[in-house]
Design brief:
Strand content: 15-25%
Number of helices: 12
Mean pLDDT: 90
Radius of gyration: 20 Å
Strand order of the largest sheet: 3-9-8-5-6
Number of strands: 11
Distance between the termini: 31 Å
Length: 375
């Protein structure tokens, strides 16, 4: 987990603004024909246009600052329509996102913290949704079924974890911690679209720096492994369960775009490369490989849902993805222990390099999936 991030909602409930003047609509249509340039610095977020035509938009985000940055497109209530993370200084990365008519905010986040440097983006007119394509419609429906199945497991296992914490059963709670988080990590892209719910559930201790209370899974992780005292952890556990119930209700009702699946599959691998590999995610329990495996499984599930459409549009890409994921599975299997995995602290530098290399290798073809979806 980082700050709240991606996965778009494409519902009729988006706040729709009045239609812009014809000249502005023409400007939007022209801008939609090519990437919208976004120049991000440590103090500014210069988005090339502020008016777009409805449909699929591509943003080319160039980091001209000195800090790693992120770029977001938000709908009302800070629902995340699309996001791209870890844009290092000097790099340009593209984000494709499907935008119905409405009023949005763009945001660059230098240093990947805070609310970001924001601007208004107006989208007007209408466009056929990507799900008018039968294969893409089935992809989103299939993936939503996956989200619903994982949400059931998330609720059940988090309840077991919370019950163990409240009963003072330290060893049982420790055993349940990585299991419950497996379900969360598989569907993390969908779960993270809803404002402050994600950092309340999955925020690391750094959230305090942004004026938030340190709660959720990682607060309980710290209590269990660092102090071993969970006698006062009951309220945190109760709040975690309430927040998980809320986010599951919202996530299972979300209407997704096929680009959500494509972008989310890539973002899950980015999560592995920037958090699980380093050991910073589960810094007290060192159960990062459970999260690693779950992120990969979630990425594979999104690609599996898109597979029929990708086989039509980019069959060679499907072959590359199959090979890449097989290599990841092989490397990860070396670290299985019973029903789980080795602790991060038990991995050697060579182990971490191998895992990093296979993730980076499959990340390259998976970065091409969004472009293939909108062909």
């Amino acid at each position: 987990m980082r700050t709240p991030r991606f996965f778009a909602l494409t519902t009729a409930a988006l706040a729709v603004a009045g239609l812009t003047a014809c000249a502005e609509a023409d400007e939007g249509a022209n801008a939609a024909a090519g990437p919208v340039a976004v120049n991000a610095t440590d103090t500014a977020c210069d988005v090339g246009v502020t008016v777009l035509a409805a449909g699929t938009a591509t943003f080319a985000v160039t980091n001209k600052g000195s800090k790693i940055t992120e770029f977001y497109v938000y709908a009302s209530g800070d629902r995340i329509m699309g996001e791209i993370e870890n844009v290092a200084p000097g790099l340009t990365r593209e984000l494709r996102v499907e935008l119905p008519a409405g009023t949005y905010q763009t945001a660059c986040k230098p240093g990947m913290v805070g609310d970001g440097i924001r601007g208004t983006l107006q989208v007007s007119g209408s466009a056929a949704p990507l799900t008018d394509d039968a294969a893409l419609a089935e992809a989103t429906a299939g993936y939503q079924r996956y989200v619903q199945s994982q949400s059931t497991g998330l609720l059940a296992k988090t309840q077991e974890f919370v019950d163990a914490v409240k009963a003072g059963k330290v060893d049982e709670a420790k055993a349940l911690f990585p299991v419950a988080r497996t379900y969360w990590e598989r569907i993390e892209p969908v779960a993270e679209i809803f404002g402050d719910l994600d950092p309340r559930i999955d925020g690391r201790e750094e959230v305090i720096e942004e004026g938030m209370e340190f709660t959720g899974y990682h607060r309980l992780e710290k209590d269990l492994w660092e102090t071993g005292d969970i006698s006062k952890s009951g309220p945190v556990a109760d709040q975690l369960m309430a927040d998980v119930k809320e986010i599951v209700a919202k996530a299972t009702a979300a209407q997704l775009s096929p680009l959500n699946l494509a972008n989310g599959a890539k973002e899950l691998l980015d999560e592995v490369a920037t958090g699980k590999i380093t050991g910073e995610e589960d810094r007290y329990s060192h159960t990062d490989l459970w999260d690693f495996a779950a992120n990969v499984e979630g990425s594979k599930a999104a690609i599996a849902a898109l597979r029929p459409a990708l086989e039509q549009r980019a069959p060679a890409l499907v072959t590359q993805l199959d090979t890449g994921f097989a290599d990841v599975d092989t490397a990860l299997a070396k670290h299985r222990v019973g029903d789980g995995y080795k602790l991060h602290t038990d991995l050697t530098e060579a182990d971490l390099k191998e895992l990093s290399d296979v993730i980076n290798a499959v990340s390259e073809p998976i970065s091409q999936v969004a472009a293939a979806v909108v062909k």
